[in-house]
Every structure is written in structure tokens, then in C-alpha cells.
Amino acid sequence: MSDLPPPVLVTRRLAPGVIERLTDHHPATLHDSDQAMGRAELLAAVPGRRAVVTTLDDRVDAEFLDAAGPDLAIVANHAVGFHNIDLAACAARGVHVSNTPGVLTTATADMAWALLLAATRRLGEGERLLRSGRPWTWAPNFLLGMELAGTQLGVLGMGRIGQAVARRARAFDMPVAYHNRRELPPGEAEGADWKPLEELLATSTVLVVTCPLSEATRHLLDARRLALLPPGAVVVAMTAGVVDEEALAAALESGALFAAAVDNFEHEPAVPSALLAQERAVLAPHLGSATVRTRQAMGGLAVDNVLAVLGGGEPVTPVKA
Ligand code: GLV
Fold first, then answer.
1. What is the rounded distance in angstroms from the CA atom of residue 20 to the CA atom of residue 272?
2. Pocket of ligand 1 contains residue 260 by CB under 6 Å
């Protein structure tokens, strides 16, 4: 009898129906929990696996790969992001890496708009007020927000999600500008103008941050760059780590920003106390892709990547080093 473990490890409970799509083809060990595996537990579970379905909470580095051993063929990340994965270390060992692009675009762009509207119309403050039981009354100057029509929306990171955010701006009569490493062909830019980063910041009263986190983008929006935004601007951060959270809190505290919204945090599940102290910060617990349909599609795509590689092929949605 072989003492090899089932070939696939899935590090988190998946959306309904997804695990069966995998286990119909390959035996798997499922960490059937909504909590991430502890590091020691993860390292103890990977030896001998051929595929691991990971989430952003699972660090895939040389230590993980050494623990997994030479049979590991693919790390299928259940996320569009992959900053938890050392791509060079995977490439050096011939381990494929995949992510889940495309399927979460709509849900995440919708969430960016939910946060944008909540921040500009002060919904968090209003809700907290009602739930506090404190007296309130309608008044001409009560909880006044910011109007969107005619205001420039800046999109930092014009990938699929940024483009979908820009497309939705038409319904709000907002002109859109964007910054991206490369200028997009006009057909993909949703009518938005490319601008150098500093010019985008200086002209965008509402800024949505959708660029992926990488070493190049970590804290790209630091105190100096946040200070370039027009007075009373609103920042919506959809990617963890790109906006310096302490600098964002300070810009809210000083009144330089009108409001902000954050969906992903750099050191989740920790949320900086400086941000929690800001009434004008709308804070969401990483809900960008959190719909049943999208989570089923993300899980399905992660599984499809595993099936493709264990079937001897290439990943469907590879991430290259
Ligand atoms: C973020 O939640 C991602 O999917 O990368």
C-alpha cells in the first residue's frame, strides 16, 4: 500500500459545488474550513502533492516548495492576485502557477462602485448614526455628500477590473482618465484618456485603485502622491498594499480628502486603528469578488487549472514569472 497522500490539497472550503468538480477526477484533501490553514499545518500538509489550490492567505515560497517536494506540478491560486506566490521560486522548480482572471471582473467593479457611492454619499456615517440611537433630524446641511456628474473619475490600473469600473462611469456622467503602465488601444480604454500618474492624481477628484500589488506598486500612493490629489478628493482602494493605509488615514484626518473606501487590507485580517478611527472611511472586509456566482466561477477556474495540468497539459490561466 502506498503512503502517498491524495494528489491534490485544497487549503480552504470552496463555494457550493466546486469541490465535486475536482474530486470527480482526482482524490483531494480539503481543509474544510473558512479559516486559513496555519503555516505549520500547511507545510505539514503539502509533502507529496501534485497540485495545491491556494488562497491569498497561503504564502507559496521556497520553504513551501521545498516542503511540497518534486511532485508538485501546479499551484492554482483562488484569486486574480498572486502576491502571496514567489513566481521565480515556482519557475525555478518547474511548478506552474495559475490565477482566476476574468471571472471576478463584474463583481469587483460593482463593489468598487458600491464603495465609491457609499464614500461620496457618507452612507457609513449615516448608518452608524442610526444604529447608535443618537437623535438626528433632516436638515439642509445634514451629512452632505459629493455629486458625481461632471467630476473626473481617475482609474489607477486599467486592466479588466479598471476597464469595467470606467465603463460604469458612463451611467454617472463622469469623465474618466486612467493611468496604466502601457496606454491601451482606444477600443479598450472605454473612452478614458491616459495620463501620467502624477497628472492623473492632480486631476482626479474621485480615484479608484485597481492595479495589482507588486513590488513596483507597493505603497505607490504614499503620503506624497496622495497630497497631489485635488483638495476634497475621494480614494477607493480595491487592491491591498498599493495605497499606504497610514498615509490614507492621515489624509482623512487632516481633511485633505473628503472620504475614502478600502476593500482589501495589507495585513488582513488586521485593519489599522488609524483607519478605523476615521468616520469618513468606508471599510469593507475584502468583499470585491464575494458573490455566489463569482466565487463558484473562481473555484471552477482554479479546479480547471488543476485538471489541465494533472491531465498533462498547460494551465488555462497561467501566471508567468
Ligand atoms: C483579491 O481578492 C483577488 O482575487 O486577488
1. 38
2. no
Check if 107 has its Cβ closer than 6 Å to any atom of ligand 1: no
- pLDDT tens series, the chain, 321 aa: 457 899 999 999 999 999 999 999 999 999 999 999 999 999 999 999 999 999 999 999 999 999 999 999 999 999 999 999 999 999 999 999 999 999 999 999 999 999 999 999 999 999 999 999 999 999 999 999 999 999 999 999 999 999 999 999 999 999 999 999 999 998 889 999 999 999 999 999 999 999 999 999 999 999 999 999 999 999 999 999 999 999 999 999 999 999 999 999 999 999 999 999 999 999 999 999 999 999 999 999 999 999 999 999 999 999 998
- The 10 Å CB-count burial string (b at 16+, else e) for 18-27 is bbebbeeebe
- Residue 209 to residue 193: CA distance in whole angstroms: 16
Which atom of ligand 1 is the closest one to the Cα of 298?
Answer: 4
Ligand 1, residue 240: give the atom nearest the CA: 1
Domains along the chain with CATH numbers = 8-101+292-310 (3.40.50.720), 105-283 (3.40.50.720)
Q: Could you tell me if 100 and 301 are in contact, meaning their C-beta atoms sit under 8 angstroms apart?
A: yes
Task: Compute the C-alpha angle 194/208/275, nearest 5°.
Answer: 145
**Ligand 1 centre distance from Cα of residue 79 (Å):** 4
Among 54, 161, 264, residue to substitute to test ligand 1 (most atoms within 8 Å of Cβ) = 264
CA 86 – ligand 1 centroid, Å: 16
Whose C-alpha lies nearest to ligand 1, atom 5? Answer: 81
